Protein backbone atom coordinates (compact mmCIF):
# COMPACT_ATOMS: atom_id res chain seq x y z
CA UNK A 1 0.00 0.00 0.00
CA UNK A 2 1.41 3.43 -0.99
CA UNK A 3 -0.41 5.37 1.77
CA UNK A 4 -1.44 3.65 4.97
CA UNK A 5 -4.90 4.33 6.40
CA UNK A 6 -3.36 5.41 9.72
CA UNK A 7 0.11 6.42 10.89
CA UNK A 8 2.35 3.40 11.54
CA UNK A 9 5.85 4.85 12.01
CA UNK A 10 6.48 5.00 15.75
CA UNK A 11 9.60 7.18 15.45
CA UNK A 12 7.99 9.84 13.25
CA UNK A 13 8.05 13.14 15.24
CA UNK A 14 9.00 11.15 18.35
CA UNK A 15 10.64 13.09 21.17
CA UNK A 16 11.88 10.86 23.96
CA UNK A 17 10.94 11.98 27.48
CA UNK A 18 12.61 10.69 30.64
CA UNK A 19 11.32 11.42 34.14
CA UNK A 20 13.47 12.09 37.21
CA UNK A 21 13.01 13.16 40.80
CA UNK A 22 14.19 16.66 39.93
CA UNK A 23 15.42 18.88 37.10
CA UNK A 24 18.95 18.80 38.48
CA UNK A 25 18.97 15.00 38.24
CA UNK A 26 17.89 15.27 34.61
CA UNK A 27 20.69 17.76 33.93
CA UNK A 28 23.19 15.59 35.77
CA UNK A 29 22.34 12.62 33.56
CA UNK A 30 23.08 14.66 30.46
CA UNK A 31 26.42 15.79 31.89
CA UNK A 32 27.42 12.23 32.81
CA UNK A 33 27.35 11.21 29.16
CA UNK A 34 29.85 13.91 28.18
CA UNK A 35 32.01 13.99 31.32
CA UNK A 36 33.41 10.61 30.27
CA UNK A 37 34.63 12.02 26.96
CA UNK A 38 37.87 13.89 26.29
CA UNK A 39 38.21 17.58 25.40
CA UNK A 40 34.68 18.57 26.35
CA UNK A 41 33.78 22.08 27.56
CA UNK A 42 30.42 23.12 28.93
CA UNK A 43 29.55 26.82 28.57
CA UNK A 44 27.27 28.13 31.29
CA UNK A 45 25.82 31.60 32.02
CA UNK A 46 27.58 33.73 34.61
CA UNK A 47 24.33 34.02 36.53
CA UNK A 48 23.86 30.99 38.74
CA UNK A 49 22.44 31.18 42.22
CA UNK A 50 22.94 29.19 45.39
CA UNK A 51 20.93 28.91 48.58
CA UNK A 52 21.74 27.40 51.98
CA UNK A 53 18.70 25.12 51.78
CA UNK A 54 18.82 23.86 48.19
CA UNK A 55 22.38 24.44 47.03
CA UNK A 56 22.68 25.25 43.33
CA UNK A 57 20.40 23.42 40.92
CA UNK A 58 22.66 24.21 37.98
CA UNK A 59 26.15 24.22 39.44
CA UNK A 60 25.97 21.27 41.85
CA UNK A 61 25.55 18.67 39.05
CA UNK A 62 28.45 20.25 37.13
CA UNK A 63 30.76 19.92 40.13
CA UNK A 64 29.49 16.43 40.93
CA UNK A 65 30.26 14.93 37.52
CA UNK A 66 33.50 16.90 37.14
CA UNK A 67 32.92 18.25 33.64
CA UNK A 68 35.10 21.10 32.39
CA UNK A 69 33.19 24.40 32.19
CA UNK A 70 33.51 28.06 31.22
CA UNK A 71 31.23 30.99 32.02
CA UNK A 72 29.76 33.27 29.38
CA UNK A 73 28.70 36.82 30.21
CA UNK A 74 25.25 38.32 30.60
CA UNK A 75 24.29 42.00 30.76
CA UNK A 76 22.25 43.82 33.37
CA UNK A 77 19.06 42.92 31.53
CA UNK A 78 19.94 39.25 31.95
CA UNK A 79 20.58 38.75 28.25
CA UNK A 80 23.55 36.88 26.78
CA UNK A 81 26.49 38.83 25.37
CA UNK A 82 26.48 37.11 21.98
CA UNK A 83 29.74 38.65 20.78
CA UNK A 84 31.70 37.40 23.75
CA UNK A 85 30.04 33.98 23.59
CA UNK A 86 30.99 33.69 19.93
CA UNK A 87 34.61 34.58 20.73
CA UNK A 88 34.77 32.03 23.55
CA UNK A 89 33.34 29.27 21.36
CA UNK A 90 35.70 30.12 18.50
CA UNK A 91 38.69 30.01 20.82
CA UNK A 92 37.81 26.68 22.44
CA UNK A 93 38.89 23.38 20.94
CA UNK A 94 37.17 20.03 21.26
CA UNK A 95 33.51 19.23 21.82
CA UNK A 96 31.38 22.12 23.06
CA UNK A 97 28.14 22.13 25.02
CA UNK A 98 26.16 25.32 25.69
CA UNK A 99 23.59 25.63 28.47
CA UNK A 100 20.86 28.17 27.68
CA UNK A 101 18.78 29.09 30.73
CA UNK A 102 15.26 30.40 30.20
CA UNK A 103 15.20 32.47 33.37
CA UNK A 104 11.71 32.90 34.86
CA UNK A 105 10.17 31.29 31.76
CA UNK A 106 11.61 33.79 29.26
CA UNK A 107 14.00 32.81 26.46
CA UNK A 108 16.83 35.23 25.80
CA UNK A 109 15.80 38.33 23.83
CA UNK A 110 18.24 37.30 21.07
CA UNK A 111 17.74 33.55 21.32
CA UNK A 112 17.69 32.95 17.54
CA UNK A 113 21.05 34.62 16.96
CA UNK A 114 22.53 32.90 20.03
CA UNK A 115 21.45 29.50 18.70
CA UNK A 116 22.98 30.31 15.30
CA UNK A 117 26.29 31.10 17.00
CA UNK A 118 26.16 27.79 18.85
CA UNK A 119 25.29 25.79 15.75
CA UNK A 120 28.02 27.50 13.72
CA UNK A 121 30.46 26.13 16.29
CA UNK A 122 28.88 22.65 16.21
CA UNK A 123 27.93 23.04 19.86
CA UNK A 124 25.42 20.77 21.53
CA UNK A 125 22.67 22.88 23.09
CA UNK A 126 21.07 22.11 26.44
CA UNK A 127 17.99 24.15 27.34
CA UNK A 128 17.30 24.74 31.01
CA UNK A 129 13.52 25.02 30.88
CA UNK A 130 13.04 24.50 34.61
CA UNK A 131 10.95 27.70 34.59
CA UNK A 132 9.65 27.33 31.05
CA UNK A 133 7.33 24.32 30.90
CA UNK A 134 4.44 26.43 29.59
CA UNK A 135 6.63 28.57 27.36
CA UNK A 136 7.51 25.33 25.61
CA UNK A 137 4.31 23.27 25.61
CA UNK A 138 1.82 26.14 25.28
CA UNK A 139 3.67 29.02 23.63
CA UNK A 140 6.20 26.99 21.61
CA UNK A 141 8.85 29.66 22.18
CA UNK A 142 11.48 27.27 23.48
CA UNK A 143 12.11 23.56 23.75
CA UNK A 144 13.07 23.07 20.10
CA UNK A 145 16.38 24.94 20.06
CA UNK A 146 18.26 22.36 22.07
CA UNK A 147 19.38 18.80 21.70
CA UNK A 148 18.38 18.31 25.34
CA UNK A 149 15.72 20.15 27.34
CA UNK A 150 15.08 19.64 31.03
CA UNK A 151 12.13 20.78 33.13
CA UNK A 152 11.26 21.17 36.79
CA UNK A 153 7.73 19.85 37.23
CA UNK A 154 7.31 20.68 40.91
CA UNK A 155 8.19 24.34 40.27
CA UNK A 156 5.38 24.69 37.74
CA UNK A 157 2.74 22.24 38.99
CA UNK A 158 1.58 21.24 42.49
CA UNK A 159 3.89 18.22 42.75
CA UNK A 160 6.20 17.52 45.68
CA UNK A 161 9.03 16.76 43.27
CA UNK A 162 9.58 15.84 39.66
CA UNK A 163 11.81 16.60 36.71
CA UNK A 164 11.83 15.64 33.07
CA UNK A 165 14.28 15.47 30.21
CA UNK A 166 13.30 15.73 26.55
CA UNK A 167 15.76 14.64 23.89
CA UNK A 168 15.13 16.20 20.50
CA UNK A 169 18.02 14.51 18.71
CA UNK A 170 17.38 10.77 18.38
CA UNK A 171 21.09 10.23 17.69
CA UNK A 172 21.83 11.23 21.30
CA UNK A 173 19.61 8.72 23.09
CA UNK A 174 22.39 6.32 24.07
CA UNK A 175 23.25 6.38 27.75
CA UNK A 176 19.85 7.45 29.02
CA UNK A 177 17.29 5.44 30.89
CA UNK A 178 14.21 6.10 32.96
CA UNK A 179 15.46 6.89 36.46
CA UNK A 180 12.14 7.42 38.20
CA UNK A 181 9.50 4.72 38.10
CA UNK A 182 6.97 7.34 39.09
CA UNK A 183 4.81 8.75 36.34
CA UNK A 184 4.29 12.49 36.75
CA UNK A 185 0.81 13.34 35.39
CA UNK A 186 1.78 16.71 33.91
CA UNK A 187 -0.73 16.35 31.10
CA UNK A 188 -3.57 15.70 33.53
CA UNK A 189 -3.46 19.45 34.02
CA UNK A 190 -4.81 21.95 31.51
CA UNK A 191 -1.49 23.59 30.69
CA UNK A 192 -3.16 26.09 28.39
CA UNK A 193 -5.51 27.27 31.14
CA UNK A 194 -2.66 27.56 33.64
CA UNK A 195 -0.64 29.51 31.10
CA UNK A 196 -3.56 31.87 30.54
CA UNK A 197 -3.87 32.56 34.27
CA UNK A 198 -0.15 33.18 34.66
CA UNK A 199 -0.12 35.60 31.72
CA UNK A 200 -3.18 37.39 33.06
CA UNK A 201 -1.51 37.83 36.45
CA UNK A 202 1.70 39.06 34.83
CA UNK A 203 -0.30 41.63 32.86
CA UNK A 204 -1.84 42.93 36.10
CA UNK A 205 1.61 43.30 37.66
CA UNK A 206 2.88 45.04 34.54
CA UNK A 207 0.03 47.55 34.46
CA UNK A 208 0.34 48.28 38.19
CA UNK A 209 4.10 48.80 38.17
CA UNK A 210 5.03 50.14 34.72
CA UNK A 211 4.76 53.82 35.71
CA UNK A 212 6.95 53.53 38.81
CA UNK A 213 10.27 53.53 36.96
CA UNK A 214 11.92 55.76 39.57
CA UNK A 215 11.76 52.93 42.08
CA UNK A 216 11.85 49.76 40.02
CA UNK A 217 12.62 48.29 36.63
CA UNK A 218 10.48 45.55 35.09
CA UNK A 219 13.09 43.04 33.99
CA UNK A 220 10.83 41.13 31.61
CA UNK A 221 7.97 43.25 30.19
CA UNK A 222 4.64 41.55 29.67
CA UNK A 223 4.29 39.40 26.57
CA UNK A 224 1.39 37.22 25.53
CA UNK A 225 3.90 34.98 23.75
CA UNK A 226 5.67 33.78 26.90
CA UNK A 227 4.35 32.23 30.11
CA UNK A 228 6.21 33.51 33.17
CA UNK A 229 7.28 31.48 36.15
CA UNK A 230 7.35 34.69 38.21
CA UNK A 231 7.31 38.42 37.47
CA UNK A 232 10.89 39.65 37.98
CA UNK A 233 11.62 43.28 38.85
CA UNK A 234 14.76 45.19 39.75
CA UNK A 235 14.56 47.34 42.88
CA UNK A 236 16.41 50.62 42.34
CA UNK A 237 16.18 52.69 45.52
CA UNK A 238 15.54 50.27 48.35
CA UNK A 239 17.27 47.33 49.95
CA UNK A 240 15.98 44.22 48.20
CA UNK A 241 16.47 42.00 51.22
CA UNK A 242 14.50 44.31 53.49
CA UNK A 243 11.72 44.46 50.90
CA UNK A 244 11.65 40.66 50.64
CA UNK A 245 11.23 40.22 54.39
CA UNK A 246 8.63 42.98 54.71
CA UNK A 247 6.47 41.51 51.95
CA UNK A 248 6.65 38.02 53.39
CA UNK A 249 5.94 39.28 56.91
CA UNK A 250 2.81 40.90 55.45
CA UNK A 251 1.74 37.51 54.09
CA UNK A 252 2.77 37.94 50.46
CA UNK A 253 4.95 35.23 48.98
CA UNK A 254 7.65 37.15 47.18
CA UNK A 255 10.79 35.23 46.36
CA UNK A 256 14.28 36.35 45.57
CA UNK A 257 15.54 33.86 43.02
CA UNK A 258 19.29 33.86 42.40
CA UNK A 259 19.78 36.22 45.35
CA UNK A 260 23.32 34.95 45.92
CA UNK A 261 25.76 33.99 43.19
CA UNK A 262 27.85 30.85 43.43
CA UNK A 263 31.40 31.49 44.67
CA UNK A 264 33.14 31.42 41.23
CA UNK A 265 30.87 34.27 40.05
CA UNK A 266 31.52 36.47 43.07
CA UNK A 267 34.32 38.28 41.26
CA UNK A 268 34.69 41.77 39.84
CA UNK A 269 34.60 40.55 36.25
CA UNK A 270 31.01 39.38 36.83
CA UNK A 271 29.82 42.74 38.15
CA UNK A 272 26.61 42.65 36.09
CA UNK A 273 25.62 39.30 37.54
CA UNK A 274 26.33 40.38 41.09
CA UNK A 275 24.39 43.61 40.61
CA UNK A 276 21.29 41.80 39.33
CA UNK A 277 21.43 39.27 42.16
CA UNK A 278 21.47 42.09 44.71
CA UNK A 279 18.50 43.96 43.23
CA UNK A 280 16.10 41.35 41.84
CA UNK A 281 12.86 40.22 43.43
CA UNK A 282 10.29 37.87 41.90
CA UNK A 283 6.57 38.49 42.29
CA UNK A 284 4.03 35.62 42.19
CA UNK A 285 1.92 34.93 39.10
CA UNK A 286 1.16 31.24 39.61
CA UNK A 287 -2.26 29.73 38.98
CA UNK A 288 -3.39 29.96 42.61
CA UNK A 289 -2.95 33.75 42.76
CA UNK A 290 -6.11 35.89 42.52
CA UNK A 291 -6.44 39.38 41.06
CA UNK A 292 -7.40 41.03 44.35
CA UNK A 293 -4.36 39.48 46.03
CA UNK A 294 -2.07 41.07 43.46
CA UNK A 295 -3.72 44.47 43.98
CA UNK A 296 -3.17 44.20 47.75
CA UNK A 297 0.43 43.06 47.37
CA UNK A 298 1.22 45.81 44.86
CA UNK A 299 -0.21 48.41 47.24
CA UNK A 300 2.04 47.21 50.07
CA UNK A 301 5.05 46.99 47.75
CA UNK A 302 4.67 50.55 46.50
CA UNK A 303 3.93 51.91 49.96
CA UNK A 304 7.23 50.46 51.20
CA UNK A 305 9.18 51.96 48.32
CA UNK A 306 7.53 55.39 48.48
CA UNK A 307 7.64 55.60 52.28
CA UNK A 308 11.38 55.07 52.17
CA UNK A 309 11.69 57.99 49.75
CA UNK A 310 9.72 60.25 52.10
CA UNK A 311 11.97 59.29 55.01
Q: How would you portray this structure in words?
A:
The chain is an alpha/beta fold and 311 residues long. The protein is 33% helix and 16% strand. The chain has helices spanning 23-35, 59-65, 82-90, 111-120, 133-137, 191-209, 240-249, 271-279, 291-310, and strands at 16-20, 40-45, 69-72, 95-101, 124-128, 148-152, 163-167, 216-218, 231-235, 280-283. The strands form two sheets. The protein has a seven-stranded mixed β-sheet with strand order 1-7-6-5-4-2-3, sandwiched between helices. It has a three-stranded antiparallel β-sheet with strand order 8-9-10. β2 (40-45), α2 (59-65) and β3 form a beta-alpha-beta unit. α3 (82-90) packs parallel to α4 (111-120) and α6 runs parallel beside α9 (291-310). The longest helix has 20 residues, at 291-310. The protein is globular, with a radius of gyration of 20 Å. The model has no long low-confidence stretch (mean pLDDT 93).
Q: Which regions are unreliable across 5 or more consecutive residues at pLDDT < 50?
A: none
> How much strand?
15-25%
Percent in helix: 25-40%
**What value does the average pLDDT take?**
93
Please name the defining characteristics of this protein:
311 residues; seven-stranded mixed sheet; 33% helix
Give a brief outline of the structure.
The protein has helices spanning 23-35, 59-65, 82-90, 111-120, 133-137, 191-209, 240-249, 271-279, 291-310, and strands at 16-20, 40-45, 69-72, 95-101, 124-128, 148-152, 163-167, 216-218, 231-235, 280-283.
List the helices and strands and how they pair.
Blueprint: E1 16-20, H1 23-35, E2 40-45, H2 59-65, E3 69-72, H3 82-90, E4 95-101, H4 111-120, E5 124-128, H5 133-137, E6 148-152, E7 163-167, H6 191-209, E8 216-218, E9 231-235, H7 240-249, H8 271-279, E10 280-283, H9 291-310
Parallel strand pairs: 2-3, 2-4, 4-5, 5-6
Antiparallel strand pairs: 1-7, 6-7, 8-9, 9-10
Amino acid sequence: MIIEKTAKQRTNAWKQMFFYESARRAFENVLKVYAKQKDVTLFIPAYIGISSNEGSGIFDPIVKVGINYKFYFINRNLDIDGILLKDELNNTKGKKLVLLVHYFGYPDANIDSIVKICRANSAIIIEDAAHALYTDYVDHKCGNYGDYIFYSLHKMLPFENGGALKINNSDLLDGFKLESEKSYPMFNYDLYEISKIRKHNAKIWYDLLKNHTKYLHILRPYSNDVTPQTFPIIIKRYDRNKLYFKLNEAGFGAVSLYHTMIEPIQKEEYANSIWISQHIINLPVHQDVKENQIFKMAKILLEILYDEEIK
